[in-house]
């Protein structure tokens, strides 16, 4: 196997593992192509730590005398220290980790090798597909159709093969529209609000450019969306200034003249690098071990993470308000339509649609709106907060979504069918996983690498009976009502369960919550038996 | 069609403002209020309440000898206020006869409970004179020769809260007296120390004359006495005031010996003295005759806990009020919160108490004092006891803790709160007790299953800290309470609480008697108590009870129903099964299995 050339030392004895929440332990360390395995060889204990190399975000090595220490900082924010005897062994191990943890080739990643005994590759992959989604929503069929114009991923490489569009827009028109939208992401339906028939559409920015190009078909499509009703809204996730500037580089926005029935609302959302830097600052503040914590709140504020949470929730609230309260259809886009667009569309659906709030419903929503809709997981999640590598396309948009969902969950503890544990699991899996779900950047890439055929599906795994229990909310009480989050800064909190997860302080709270959970489950069972 | 609001607003959650039908608005104001026994109408008036959240609201205000009540008329939303007069710290006239502008003439009321109220009145004919004078009189009865409302009302409850704390019983529960500690009645006439209770626990070896000599060397005669003893290791928490060292560095052999006797009682290697103050303040106290224990106390070690004094705490809470009322400082919320230092003070109090608890649970006796030993000392000893002794984490135990460490040991509630007193600017005011309750709340957040009581109890305690409806928090010390016959003439707050206990119970409580709770006193894990400090803001979701708690209680109710049904089934079963009594195997296995399951799963509820 080609991994072996990166492994000079595969086994070291007498390694000491130090980690918060555990006493130090001595044992054997092994490096394999995908894992770091530490097994405790002491009397009476058999602790094993199996760490996906992919989970390692950064390593630091310190050599002193004949031994060395490697500090491993993981993408799930865990920090481990390994004291390794022998300088050369230490350097070898460090080098192996450095190389193997950031191999670029997707087909060599662990999901392609993961073969658990309890599942076969023949198991169903995924929960839903655009086809299934469309066929379930019969109310749609009057005015909307399922287009397979993208079946070869030629019109829009980051869209799934089938998408839902207005009925009277044919495939030829879609092809033209795709040329008018960045990366071919023409407006498609993401959500249909059963209560009033209004919809959420998403797309990328129109390529109007400096000379204000127009596209009749694009205007026609949007007109078809609102068909009959007086107007629709476009929520642009950039400030109007940013939208204006985008024209210089060929992008732009929907002008009044071309889209007279559409009203544009600009809400500036932070994306890309700014978001990544925010996460780095936050994690740094959380990991600050110095005793001088007087400035904690300022540091938290300076990281701006919570204000990103606030903006995301309030923009999603605005979107849901347009649809649910005012009864208008909305088109959402920023520039590429693969990040903040998905973020607020997903959150708005959680706010409005009870079907998305069950465990299955939520996972299906993520599959539809993030995996199939082409959020570039590969690029966004290749590194996290500890990495020293130069920032490229990394951005914790998906983590921000999970944080926002956690805020919803905290404000409405009965309305969501899943638990915090699910959000924590997803936050880990998005960065390093045994499963193929979050591999690649879009369906086309997944198709080329035959991800479906060669890896397991995380969402299916989470729904297996045994896992499912831990991920569902025992207090869940379905409600048809919209759940409007409070977005005032004093209502939003740091997601301690994630950001302070590996501190001893968070542990006892986790235990107490587990205890409450069990109490509820027990009494629930008895009360309902 | 109206376009959607440009700023997403989440005001849909207003609950204290509810829409109502027109008919109810016509109802007479008095009919809305259920007056307490002894409560009487003083005056009512048409007025405009200048609500910081909804703007000016027309309505009628009713003032009784207990409360200020306001209800809006002719508005689509009903705005209601029900404020005990005891919560008022200041009443002022706003504007003059000549002031212009709408609603610029009226009353400005500052409350002790994190809010202000403004009422506008008609400008003509001195319309506010009578209401101002009457409100001023009844809000500050002690400044006008009137009794506090607790002496007026005679509400009856099924429980007598004055029975909750009996010092001797509490000492007995702790295993006292024993061969090292004795109970003394030396203070039965408050002659040794007029701010201490009558019953004290002191080292067995110390004679009454020793105590008197020590009292001469401790500020206000507040000698070191036992607050709590660890059952297993016999380490104790002893509390007192500062030694009267003064500039000249006076020594007192009796005090030194006394402290050594305390240390000896469980063979601690050192007696740790926790001085709650910052060291600079302790030094500065020498100038006024006070100070701290120096090197002459050879068997003791001194630790300063850096907790600021009552004035700093008062200013800090004032700053907090500025950023949360009426509007929350949203643009730089976290740094504004930080600049109030409130959470930092909470952190220092909690971490001080953790140090005390940790020392004691590792077998070392400690002595806690500040200057007078009735503010920071009470915070530290009571919080440490809450961490060490699970009894204090029960509903009744918590009442005992407050009665004992705060009320009986002379936390100056009257001076700190200013019950019935018009001097709002008095330098003695300070939210030390509020801060203690905040610390308790932080602990309940960190240990959601360790406390038998819920957040509502804490809110109720703080509401009645000001209300003057109960005698519990009145006066500065026991001797003053005796003199004013508080126990005879007023009702205890615990009478109210204990006659409606189920309201204050935490359904998730699971007792673990031996466990010492060490909360995390790190800023990362402390939260602002939003549901207390920002509760007047309608944007804060008002949750009397968390929905999780609510749902769980529903499940428990279902269980009770199920149990009852089961019982009925068993009853109706009992006749045939008694006939089958000859075959006990079958009857016992069929009818007793389900109840056994319950005993197995029994929680303390």
TrEMBL record, chain A:
GO terms for cellular component: cytoplasm. CDD domains: PH-GRAM_MTMR9, PTP-MTMR9. GO terms for biological process: negative regulation of autophagy; phosphatidylinositol dephosphorylation. Pfam families: Myotub-related, PH-GRAM_MTMR6-like. InterPro entries: Myotubularin, Myotubularin-like_Pase_dom, PH-GRAM_MTMR6-9, PH-like_dom_sf, Prot-tyrosine_phosphatase-like. Residues 124-499 form the Myotubularin phosphatase domain. One of its GO terms (molecular function) is protein phosphatase binding. Belongs to the protein-tyrosine phosphatase family. Non-receptor class myotubularin subfamily. This is Myotubularin-related protein 9 isoform X2. It comes from Cottoperca gobio (Frogmouth).
TrEMBL record, chain B:
SMART domains: GRAM (SM00568), PTPc_motif (SM00404). Residues 161-533 form the Myotubularin phosphatase domain. Residues 340-386 form the Tyrosine specific protein phosphatases domain. Keywords: Cell membrane, Cell projection, Cytoplasm, Endosome, Hydrolase, Lipid metabolism, Membrane, Protein phosphatase. This is Myotubularin. GO terms for biological process: mitochondrion distribution; muscle cell cellular homeostasis; negative regulation of autophagosome assembly; phosphatidylinositol dephosphorylation. SUPFAM superfamilies: (Phosphotyrosine protein) phosphatases II, PH domain-like. The gene is mtm1. One of its GO terms (cellular component) is plasma membrane. The keyword Membrane applies. It comes from the Eukaryota. Belongs to the protein-tyrosine phosphatase family. Non-receptor class myotubularin subfamily. It comes from Cottoperca gobio.
């Amino acid at each position: 196997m080609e991994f072996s050339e990166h492994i000079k030392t595969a086994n070291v004895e007498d390694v000491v593992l130090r980690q918060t929440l555990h006493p130090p332990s001595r044992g054997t360390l092994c490096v394999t192509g995908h894992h770091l395995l530490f097994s405790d060889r002491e009397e009476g204990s058999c602790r094993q730590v199996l760490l996906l190399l992919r989970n390692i975000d950064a390593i630091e090595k310190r050599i002193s005398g004949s031994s060395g220490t490697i500090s491993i900082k993981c993408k799930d924010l865990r920090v481990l220290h390994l004291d390794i005897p022998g300088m050369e062994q230490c350097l070898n191990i460090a080098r192996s980790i450095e190389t193997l943890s950031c191999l670029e080739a997707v087909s060599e990643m662990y999901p392609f090798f993961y073969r658990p005994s309890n599942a076969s590759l023949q198991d169903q992959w995924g929960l839903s597909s655009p086809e299934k989604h469309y066929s379930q929503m019969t109310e749609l069929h009057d005015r909307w159709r399922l287009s397979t114009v993208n079946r070869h991923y030629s019109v829009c490489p980051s869209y799934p093969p089938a998408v839902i569009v207005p009925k009277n827009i044919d495939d030829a028109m879609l092809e033209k529209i795709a040329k008018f939208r960045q990366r071919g992401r023409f407006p498609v339906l993401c959500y249909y609000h059963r209560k009033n028939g209004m919809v959420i559409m998403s797309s990328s920015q129109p390529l109007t450019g400096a000379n204000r190009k127009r596209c009749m078909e694009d205007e026609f499509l949007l007109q078809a969306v609102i068909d009959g009703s007086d107007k629709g809204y476009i929520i642009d996730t950039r400030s109007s200034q940013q939208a204006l500037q985008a024209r210089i580089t060929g992008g732009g926005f929907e002008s009044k003249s071309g889209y007279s029935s559409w009203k544009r609302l600009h809400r500036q959302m932070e994306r890309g690098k700014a978001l990544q830097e925010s996460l780095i600052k936050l994690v740094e503040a959380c990991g600050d071990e110095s005793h001088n914590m007087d400035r904690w709140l300022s540091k938290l504020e300076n990281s701006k993470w919570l204000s990103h949470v606030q903006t995301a929730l309030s923009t999603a609230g605005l979107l849901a308000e347009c649809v649910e309260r005012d009864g208008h259809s909305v088109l959402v886009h920023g520039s590429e339509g693969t990040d903040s667009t998905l973020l607020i569309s997903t959150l708005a659906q959680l706010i409005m649609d009870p079907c998305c709030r069950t465990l299955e419903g939520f996972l299906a929503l993520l599959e539809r709106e993030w995996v199939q809709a082409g959020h570039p997981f590969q690029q966004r999640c290749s590194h996290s907060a500890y990495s020293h590598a130069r920032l490229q396309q990394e951005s914790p948009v998906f983590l921000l979504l999970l944080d926002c969902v956690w805020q919803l969950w905290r404000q409405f503890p009965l309305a969501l069918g899943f638990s915090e544990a699910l959000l924590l699991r997803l936050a880990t899996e998005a960065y390093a996983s045994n499963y193929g779900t979050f591999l690649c950047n879009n369906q086309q890439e997944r198709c080329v690498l035959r991800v479906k055929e060669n890896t397991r599906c995380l969402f299916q795994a989470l729904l297996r009976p045994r896992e499912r229990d831990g991920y569902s909310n025992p207090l869940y009480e379905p409600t048809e009502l919209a759940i409007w989050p409070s977005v005032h800064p004093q209502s939003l909190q740091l997601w301690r369960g994630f950001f302070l997860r590996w501190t001893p302080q968070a542990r006892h709270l986790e235990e107490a919550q587990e205890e409450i959970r069990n109490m509820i489950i027990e009494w629930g069972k008895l009360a309902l038996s | 069609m109206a376009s959607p609001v440009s700023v997403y607003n989440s005001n849909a959650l207003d609950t204290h403002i509810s829409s109502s039908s027109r008919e109810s608005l016509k109802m007479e104001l008095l009919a809305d209020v259920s007056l307490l026994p002894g409560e009487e109408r003083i005056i009512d008036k048409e007025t405009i309440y200048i609500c910081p959240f909804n703007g000016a609201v027309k309505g009628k205000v009713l003032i009784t000898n207990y409360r200020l009540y306001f209800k809006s008329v002719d508005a689509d939303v009903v705005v209601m206020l029900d404020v005990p007069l005891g919560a008022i710290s200041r009443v002022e006239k706003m504007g003059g006869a000549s002031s212009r502008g709408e609603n610029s003439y009226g009353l400005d009321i500052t409350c002790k409970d994190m809010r202000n109220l403004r009422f506008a009145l008609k400008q003509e004919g001195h319309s506010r004179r009578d209401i101002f004078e009457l409100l001023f009189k009844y809000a500050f009865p002690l400044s006008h020769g009137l009794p506090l409302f607790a002496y007026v009302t005679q509400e009856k409850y099924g429980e007598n809260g004055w029975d909750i704390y009996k010092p001797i019983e509490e000492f007995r529960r702790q295993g006292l007296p024993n061969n090292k500690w004795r109970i003394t009645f030396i203070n039965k006439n408050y002659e040794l120390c007029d701010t201490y209770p009558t019953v004290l626990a002191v080292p067995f070896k110390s004679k009454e004359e020793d105590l008197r000599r020590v009292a001469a060397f401790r500020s206000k005669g507040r000698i070191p006495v036992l607050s709590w003893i660890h059952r297993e290791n016999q380490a104790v928490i002893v509390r007192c005031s500062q030694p009267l060292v003064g500039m000249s560095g006076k020594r007192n052999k009796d005090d030194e010996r006394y402290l050594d006797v305390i240390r000896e009682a469980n063979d601690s290697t050192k007696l740790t003295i926790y001085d709650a103050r910052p060291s600079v303040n302790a030094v500065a106290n020498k100038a006024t005759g006070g100070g701290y224990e120096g090197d002459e106390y050879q068997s003791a070690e001194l630790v300063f806990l850096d907790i600021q004094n009552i004035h700093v705490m008062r200013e800090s809470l004032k700053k907090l009020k500025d950023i949360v009322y009426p509007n929350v400082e949203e643009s730089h919320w976290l740094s504004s919160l930080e600049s109030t230092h409130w959470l930092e003070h909470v952190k220092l109090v909690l971490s001080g108490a953790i140090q005390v608890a940790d020392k004691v649970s590792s077998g070392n006796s400690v002595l806690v004092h500040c200057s007078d030993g009735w503010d920071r000392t009470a915070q530290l000893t009571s919080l440490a006891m809450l961490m060490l002794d699970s009894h204090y984490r029960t509903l009744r135990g918590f009442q005992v803790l407050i009665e004992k460490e705060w009320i009986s040991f002379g936390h100056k509630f009257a001076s700190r709160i200013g019950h019935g007193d018009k001097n709002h600017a008095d330098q003695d005011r300070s939210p030390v007790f509020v801060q203690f309750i905040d610390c308790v709340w932080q602990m309940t957040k960190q240990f959601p299953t360790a406390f038998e009581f819920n957040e509502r109890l804490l809110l109720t305690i703080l509401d009645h800290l000001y209300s003057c409806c109960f005698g519990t928090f009145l006066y500065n010390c026991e001797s003053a309470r005796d003199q004013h016959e508080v126990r005879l003439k007023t009702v205890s707050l615990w009478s109210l609480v204990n006659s409606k206990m189920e309201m204050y119970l935490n359904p998730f409580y699971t007792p673990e008697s031996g466990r010492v709770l060490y909360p995390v006193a790190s800023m990362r894990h402390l939260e602002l108590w939003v549901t207390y400090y920002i509760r007047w803001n309608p944007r804060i979701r008002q949750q009397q009870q968390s929905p999780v708690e609510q749902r769980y209680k529903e499940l428990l109710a279902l269980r009770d129903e199920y149990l009852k049904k089961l019982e009925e089934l068993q009853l109706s079963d009992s006749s045939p099964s008694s006939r089958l009594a000859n075959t006990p195997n079958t009857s016992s296995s069929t009818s007793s299995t389900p109840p056994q399951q319950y005993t197995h799963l029994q929680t303390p509820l």
